[in-house]
């Protein structure tokens, strides 16, 4: 068994260790305790109970959560290629995710992460047909903290704006969308930076 751990550790030195919610206590504990690796969790925030358990049990060291859209805004979609009834009025979050979402779970996950004391990041892929500048500002005010309120909360507030790339999308219609310019995203970044210790544009 010792040789197996040594081999696994050698292999993982050449690859990043990123896990989703498959990493329950077994695999995560092996990575943490037996191999000495730091563990990053990528999540969409749909399972706050498991998220809290992994944090409370000290099985993860870093969390990255995708924040799809503002949590409150509603919009009507007439003929979407989503798994929701086209005649219902849905949240912009559901429009961005493409599926029905329990928004209370998303809210809870954001609060758990912000108050976890571990390092974390939030990130949003900015899509022209879904997000406006005002949407991103709303997200920043929701998930971030003004400088004066940051003391005593542990982890560093990090938020990344990821530019949409029209390639290999699940919905072919998205391949026709022209991404925002990097200059436009940098303009938004400048406006929301006060809410985060780190705010950057990716892509």
Main traits of this protein?
single chain, two-stranded antiparallel sheet, alpha/beta, 203 residues, 8 strands, 34% helix
Structural overview:
The chain is α/β, with parallel strands linked by helices and 203 residues long. The protein has seven helices and eight strands; from the N terminus they run H-E-H-E-H-E-E-E-H-H-E-H-E-H-E. It has helices spanning 2-12, 25-34, 48-56, 92-97, 103-114, 133-143, 182-192; strands at 18-19, 40-43, 62-66, 74-76, 89-91, 119-126, 158-163, 198-202. It has a six-stranded parallel beta sheet, with helices on one face. A two-stranded antiparallel ribbon has the order 4-5. The longest helix has 12 residues, at 103-114. It is globular. The model is unreliable at 7-16 and 78-85 (pLDDT under 50).
Question: What is the structure about, briefly put?
Answer:
By secondary structure, the chain is α/β, with parallel strands linked by helices. It is built from seven helices and eight strands. It has helices at 2-12, 25-34, 48-56, 92-97, 103-114, 133-143, 182-192, and strands at 18-19, 40-43, 62-66, 74-76, 89-91, 119-126, 158-163, 198-202.
């Amino acid at each position: 068994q010792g040789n197996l751990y040594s081999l696994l550790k050698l292999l993982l030195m050449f690859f990043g260790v990123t896990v989703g919610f498959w990493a329950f206590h077994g695999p995560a504990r092996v990575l943490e305790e037996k191999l000495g690796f730091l563990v990053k969790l990528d999540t969409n925030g749909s399972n706050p109970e498991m998220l809290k358990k992994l944090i409370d049990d000290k099985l993860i060291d870093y969390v990255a959560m995708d924040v799809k859209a503002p949590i409150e805004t509603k919009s009507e979609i007439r003929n979407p290629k989503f798994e929701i009834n086209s005649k219902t009025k849905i949240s912009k979050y559901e429009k961005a995710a493409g599926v029905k979402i329990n928004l209370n779970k998303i809210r809870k996950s954001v609060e758990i992460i912000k108050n976890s004391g571990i390092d974390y990041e939030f990130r949003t892929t900015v899509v022209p047909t879904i997000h406006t500048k005002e949407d991103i500002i709303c997200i920043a005010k929701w998930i971030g903290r003004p400088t004066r309120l940051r003391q005593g909360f542990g982890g560093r507030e990090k938020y990344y704006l990821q530019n949409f790339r029209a390639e290999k999308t699940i919905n072919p219609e998205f391949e026709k969308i022209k991404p925002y310019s990097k200059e436009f995203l940098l303009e938004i970044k400048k406006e929301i930076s006060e809410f985060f210790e780190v705010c950057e544009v990716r892509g």
